[in-house]
Design goal:
30% strand, 5 helices, Rossmann fold, globular, alpha/beta, eight-stranded mixed β-sheet
Length: 170
């Protein structure tokens, strides 16, 4: 499996920025954790009060790990594990009328094209609320792009070799 879990420190930064220091602001939110891997980011969102997380993972083995992690933490509701390609899953969720507050994407770093494809889709899609955020984790040397349709970079943070780029509707 090509899994590289988001580092604890970077994940903490992600949630501090996403909530602007107000942890209660995650209460009741809906997330999509794309390229979910072990599910660490989505599980953290649930532990901080998210109402629902869609874990999207194309690998059957990784999807199994997500289910095992959720079970071991006794998380029984508030999630859906979607074993599918990220773009196909996004299209399906949008067709079902799903609207989310946050999308977190963290493809394997070698999949640079995936950033552009997904961000272009999300820039035109209706799946992210107007006040929602798209958060991309990437190598610090990579610039996935500053603007995609209605999405524009609001903030970029670098920690070690990784970076978080926060996109919001312009």
């Amino acid at each position: 499996m090509d899994i590289r879990p988001t580092a604890d420190r970077l994940r903490e930064t992600l949630f501090n920025v996403a909530t602007a220091g107000n942890a209660a602001s995650l209460e009741g939110t809906v997330w999509i954790d794309l390229f979910a891997g072990t599910g660490a980011v989505g599980i953290e969102a649930l532990s901080r009060g998210a109402a629902k997380v869609y874990f999207v993972e194309s690998s059957a083995a990784a999807a199994k790990v997500i289910r095992q992690n959720l079970k071991s933490l006794q998380v029984e509701s508030g999630f859906e594990v979607v074993q599918n390609d990220a773009l196909k899953a996004l299209r399906r969720l949008q067709a079902e009328g799903v609207v989310v507050d946050f999308v977190f994407l963290d493809p394997p770093y070698r999949m640079e094209r995936a950033y552009r494809e997904i961000l272009e889709f999300l820039g035109e899609a209706t799946i992210v609320k107007a006040e929602g955020s798209v958060i991309a984790e990437h190598e610090k040397r990579l610039n996935p792009g500053d603007e995609f349709g209605g999405l524009k970079t609001a903030r970029k943070l670098v920690q070690g070799d990784a970076a978080l780029r926060f996109y919001r509707r312009s």
